[in-house]
Structures are given as C-alpha cells and as structure tokens.
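Sequence only, no structure available. Ideas?
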Amino acid sequence: MSSEINPSGEEPVDLPDDSFEKTASPAKRQKMSNRQVYNTVTDIGTGPNVRLSDNLLQLACILVTMSIGAAIGIVVAPDVFIGILVGGFCGMVLGLLGSGAVIGLYRAWQHGRGKHD
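Reply:
I predicted one. Tokens follow.
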C-alpha cells in the first residue's frame, strides 16, 4: 500500500496499489490490418464500401424492389410507360435506402463484436 495525501490537506489515506482499473495491455490487443481500418472508417464514417458481398446484396435488393415498383406502377398509372418509369424509380430509391440501412446496422453490430473484416 502506498500513502497518499488527501487533496484537502487532511491525514494521509492508504490506497492499495491495484485500486485503479487497469486497461488492457497493448500486447493483448490485436493490431488491425490496413483493410480492417479502412472497413471500420468507411462503415462508421464515410467512403465507398468495397466489400463485394455487401455490394452484390445491395444490387439484388435494388433490382427486386425496382421490379416490384415497376409492376405496381403499371397497375396504378394510367400510362404503362410512365408507370414503369415512376414505379421503377421509386422502387430503386426504396431498395437503395432500405438495403443500405440494413447493411449499415449489420456492419455496426459486427464492429461492436470486434469483427472488422
């Protein structure tokens, strides 16, 4: 135990040597690769996502929602061509935003678990 003086100038207080929380030593932490650092920055901050699996999933979602939107547009719009264009565009935007949100939440969860690949 070490003797420390209380800041108010009162009598010394005995503190055990291990009274403060110890942080994980740098030797126990694994160093992140350049790719893991890039993935973390682009997932949390900004930048293009270069994961092929994420991009293919987003492409598939956009194509499906664009097709559904075009089909709904054909049924709802008085003109078939305008219905395909407007419905397809609305489906594309919905697929882009929806799949981006799901991928973003999934990647945030993965980073929270320590998986940065």
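The first strand starts at residue 2 and ends at 4.
Hope that gets you unstuck.
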